[in-house]
Amino acid sequence: MRIVFKTSYDADLGLFVHRYQAFWYVLLLAVAVGLPFVMNDFWIGEAALMLIWAIAGMGLMLLVGHAGQPSLGHAAFMAVGAYTNVILQTSLGWPFLVSFPLSGCAAALAGALLALPTARLHGIYLAIATLAVSVLAEDGIVMLAPWTGGVSGIFAPDIKIFGVGFNRYVNAPGFYWLTLGVAVLVVLGYRNILRSPLGRSLVAVRDSEISAQAIGVNLARTKAVSFALSCGVTGLAGALMGHFAGVFNHETFTIFLSITLLMMIVIGGLGSIHGAFLGAIVITFLPLAISIVREFLNERFGTASVMPPGIETAAFGAILIAFILLEPMGIYGRWIKIRTYFELFPFCRRDMFRRQRGYLRTERIR
Amino acid sequence: MESLQLLVSGLANGCVYGLIALGFVLIYKATEALNFAQGDMMMLGAFVTLGLTNDHYWALPFWASVPIALLLMGAFGYVLEITLLRRMSGQSQIAVVVLTVALGFIIRFIAGAIWGHEPQSLESPIAGVNVRFSGLVLGLDEVAVILVTIVLTGLLYLGFAHTRLGLAMQATSQNQLAAYYMGIPVKRVSALIWCLSGIVATAAGILLASKGSIDPNSGFLGIKAFAAAVIGGLGSLPGALLGGLVIGVIEPFAARHVAAGFSQVVPYAVLLLVLIIRPSGILSQVRDKKV
User: Fold this and answer.
1) Positive or negative CA dihedral for A58, A59, A65, A66?
2) Which of A231, A365, B31, B214 could form a disulfide with A77 if both were Cys (CB 3.0 to 4.6 A apart)?
3) Cβ contact, residue pair A266, B94, below 8 Å
């Protein structure tokens, strides 16, 4: 049990609550940096993929978890980022260090453009509008075949920064460190936004639009900015995903990617940066775990013949359902419960996290 | 004449979208939950009927297997509600969306494992028969689709407006707590609405499978049905049908008159346009609260 005694207002705004917390995060970062020295290239590749998912998840988390605007169309913005990044590199010959931030800017611009007409939409209407955007983007890639390569796809060139190559297969640790660097920058930016007036107004809009308006938050502007930031970060993740995949086409950025992103942050825990990372871990390693279990069963019991195809997706769906039913606050919510239990030991009470019973009220009358 | 032909086949397609959207709207109207597995429930209903009817499987007579399938799928919807969805009441809509999407994964897997992944047609008496109608050649299946949809929508609309259960459903959706206070068994009402939605989805599935073919991925038609429901105004039953018809009619005309490769995006472009101009659909159900 630790008592945090704040003696200044700055303490409320600090990046870390207390020094021990800072210590744990620095330790985590050190472990993350040192990972390539203990793991082989395959697992480092998976870890890099996990970080890319986490970056995309943070983008979506800002919009869904903090601004409360559901989006089922973030695959479209990943696509914008990925294609901008590659096209700038191959057609214009610009280096990665220039094209990468520009791809984020392009996705942010696309997001802001979408936010202008959709700022009036709420909840499910927004979700369906973004779903339509996701479907449109998929077809749009095919239509813009002269630039995007359409169905046959487009090759992502090797990343070269000051003469050092960051190909995923040749230099797996390098690519991993690159994504780690981007992820850390995004986390820092995210943390800083959350403790700035913008972050506070995002949360205000999420919790009640009417109250937010009453205390002087400009709704349209806040929504547009949250869309732009969110889509920009997702675009960066898309650019990295393009390099990770090596070659991609319209089928890389389908509606399923959008849905997977949303599932990821819901599993991880809405409204926390941790949630994006925890969800990314689940999304990356669950298919891997399922296939390992499947192979194990096949070897042990010879079940290869009775395993129908597509059982991975079904298992994935079942695990998702279990997560949502058993822990609606996501993995991070569960972690907070466990942590509180030990912090207060032995004084934790069972009803401490009992939610107030929720009743549904229509959103059609407001 | 050609346009008329296109119009009729578009209307028939639109009716199927409308029927799927109807099930979606039913659930939304009564519980404000968004069932993203509605398309997959439609697919499952179609496969259950197909498995009962087709010679290759159980070879029951068509008119015997339809009620059985409707009952089975109604029970399926009921069980889904009491086992899974009931626990989600009062939680965020996004969680429900993720839950139903995951449910869709499982339903698709089950259908694929039992009936295979090949497209199959339902051997129904309405398939492949033509009706002449003053120079217009219509498939009996298309006529049946249009008729069934109109009848179902009308029945549901009247049911919602005038029966005791319908009023209970409306009350539940507006304010659950107040509905409890008025003595409405809210849980049973929600379960019944899922049952009803399963039945409507099966009706849509049967019509779709006798009009064309069905495979485990047919559930993706659900996405068009959501678009239909939103265009019509979520929460409005005639709106769902109207939205379905709009999308269904736009599709063949876009395919005819818009360059190939661009035509399939037209429905979604229309959806975006409608949302931008009228953010809550054509037959809007959103009202401002009077203080």
Assistant:
1) positive
2) A231
3) yes
Which residue from A121, A364, A366 is facing B235, i.e. has the nearest CB?
Answer: A364
Inter-chain CB proximity B173 and A362 less than 8 Å? yes
So what's the ipTM on this one? 0.83
Query: Nearest Cβ partner of B89 from A131, A313, A358?
Result: A358
A48-55: average pLDDT: 95
What is the maximal distance between C-alpha atoms in chain A?
Answer: 67
| A321 to B102: CB separation less than 8 angstroms, yes or no | yes
Interface contact B109-A308, CB threshold 8 A: yes
Test mutation, B27, B84, B109, chain A, max A CBs within 10 A: B109
Helix (H) / strand (E) containing A269: none
CB-CB: which of B113, B234, B268 is closest to A132?
B268
pLDDT in tens, A8-20: 888 777 788 888 8
The pTM assigned to this predicted structure is 0.88
- Number of CB pairs < 8 Å for A and B? 163
Strand partners, A164: A161
When pLDDT is averaged across residues B242-263 and rounded to a whole number, the result is 84
Would you tell me the crossing angle of helices A219-245 and A172-194 to the nearest 10 degrees? 170
Instruction: For residues B101 and A58, give the distance between their C-alpha atoms in angstroms, rounded to a whole number.
Output: 21
Residue B234 · residue A124 · CB < 8 Å: yes
Best mutation target among B88, B98, B263 (most A Cβ atoms within 10 Å) is: B98
Pairwise CB contact (< 8 Å): A360 & B89: yes
pLDDT tens by residue, A129-154: 898 898 888 888 888 888 888 788 88
> Which amino acid is located at A264 in the chain?
M
Is the C-alpha dihedral spanning A298, A301, A305, A306 positive or negative?
Answer: negative
* Residue B126 confidence (pLDDT) above 80: no
Mean pLDDT of A306-321: 79
Q: Which DSSP letter does residue B289 get?
A: P
Q: Which two tokens stand for residue B203?
A: 């009706």
Closest C-alpha among A76, B242, A140 to residue B274: B242
Q: Do A314 and B110 touch (CB under 8 A)?
A: yes
